[in-house]
Amino acid sequence: MAVLAVLMLGSCATKQSAISQLERYSYELRDNAQYYSVRDWQNAVDDFKTIRKRIAKHEQDYTPQEKRHIGELEGQCAKYMAQGAKQRLVNGVRNIAGELNGIIEGIRGGWPF
Fold it and tell me: How far apart are the C-alpha atoms of 2 and 87, rounded to whole Å?
């Protein structure tokens, strides 16, 4: 009986650690996604998949409240990923726009109009 209690406690700790990992990951994305490079995004997707696999292993063990919390955290991660990707796109467009302005100025200054 004591062995069963220890196994159940270990299982609870493992399932809770998966939720905690997802929670820490949502904070990481919230705080740093806007600074991610393309390589960072590739790693972020891989990390998210790994965390999801850990959570899936305990899917049957989670209470409805824990499942709701997991859903909220996954939603936050998705939001931060989308915001980070959008920011990266906006920064890329700004960089390209700056180059295009330089090209236009170069053409105007270089052409005898």
Answer: 53
Token digits of residue 81: 């990923």
Q: Which helix (H) or strand (E) holds 20?
A: helix 2-32
Q: State the average pLDDT for the chain.
A: 79
Give the integer Cα–Cα distance in Å for 113 and 51: 61
Least confident of 5-9, 19-23, 80-84, 103-107: 5-9
Residues 6 or more apart whose CB falls under 8 angstroms from that of 87 comprise 33, 34
Digit-coded pLDDT (tens) for 57-67: 999 999 999 99
Instruction: Give the DSSP letter string of 48-108.
Output: HHHHHHHHHHTGGG--HHHHHHHHHHHHHHHHHHHHHHHHHHHHHHHHHHHHHHHHHHHHH
Retrieve residue 59's tokens.
């899917």
